[in-house]
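Sorry to interrupt, but I need a hand with the structure work. Could you write out one complete protein record for me, on any chain you like? Just paste the record in under my message, thanks.

. . .
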Amino acid sequence: MAQSFDYESAARAPASDEGHTETSPLERLAEIAARTAEESGKFANVDAILRIPVTMQVVLGSATIPVANLMKLGRGAVVPLDHRVGEPVDVVVNGRIVARGEVVVVEEDNSRFGVSLTEIVGPLGQGDS
């Protein structure tokens, strides 16, 4: 029998530890997945699953240009993307959009960028804020 899961309720659920610092939406989702797996007894070792490496990308935008224009590109060329400044960027894991967020400068190292997640994308493409 298939087990259903209410992603919206889980995303809004507060952290259970009182002194616990606020966790990111993806950390909460991993905790929920671990609890669900443990409760259902379907996975004997959830830790092994949580250690599987995945490829994560942040997509700032895309562009479609003819090959002739591509061949003309050189150092300093600017390629306009379909996303505008201030629009959320897509967070893609193993080829699937899992979240959206805003580009930020990492506080510890001002020479690096990061993404502040603003939305977790549900299993069927719905957004769970």
